[in-house]
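YM 10:42: Homocysteine S-methyltransferase sequence, as discussed on the call
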Amino acid sequence: MIMNFEDIFNKDELILMEGGLGERLKREYNIQKDNNISLAGHIYDENKRQALTELFKQYFTVAKKYDMPIMVTTPTRRANKERIYCSIFKESNVIEDNVRFLKQLKEETTAKVYVGGLMGCKGDAYSKDEHLSIESAFEFHAWQTDLFKKANVDFLYAAIMPTLPEAIGMAKAMELTGLPYIISFMIKKDGKLLDGTTINDAIVAIDKYTTRKPLCYMTNCVHPKVLNSALSQEYNETSVVKERFKGIQANTSELSPEELDNCAELKTSDSIRLANDMINLYNKFNLKIFGGCCGTDNTHIEEIAKRLN
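YM 10:58: structure's back
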């Protein structure tokens, strides 16, 4: 019997996450993102759905091979209420259908898969500008959290959050679902979110503002060396960060968020070098969740799993 996600998080020393999706779909299948909801509408097209299926199954295969639990998230980071209503998918149940898609894939494998509802900031995750206040963020994101709760996901995941107020508002909406949830920041080498908040201060603030605190905190879409630098800053070398910051979905590029946002081509590195950097994080900071973002594929995730295993 598979344990629930919170139990597996507390019990297991190591957990995998999926690797890249959007860049792989573009590079390997010539499938472009939708201008409004990015990848979330792909499940309604037979060829795009099949491509997504193939990628997720590759990650399941790695998890099963190394007998590690794996967190996978719905490709819904941009599928908020405002964007869905502006898209050609406004008559569809985008959130519920994406959860159903991943749950069906989960039923077809013996890997230990946990399905998460993926959310993101309202604006540009690579910029500190035009982001929501705590109150506005709570109102804006509660629509999506309620749908994920009804769809019965295993956990909620707020990805690449660049500013503290919106992260707090989203966390407050997430906690009301009763589901375990994780807040993942967009950070820079200096150990701060894009709005200048240190990782330590962001964790302290969110924990203070919530009654049901996040299960842990992470970062995604940054290189392991960027995280190494960020966590090595004196103001982040605290007991709070050591206890609460637990994972990374790694980008293969060491470019800054601003540079990545304006980069016309994919920056990548080989699986062995990335795995070496990930193992360094594990040894130095005792992280437990390891996955991939832009530039990664199943070979990166397999090399990381092999080394961790």
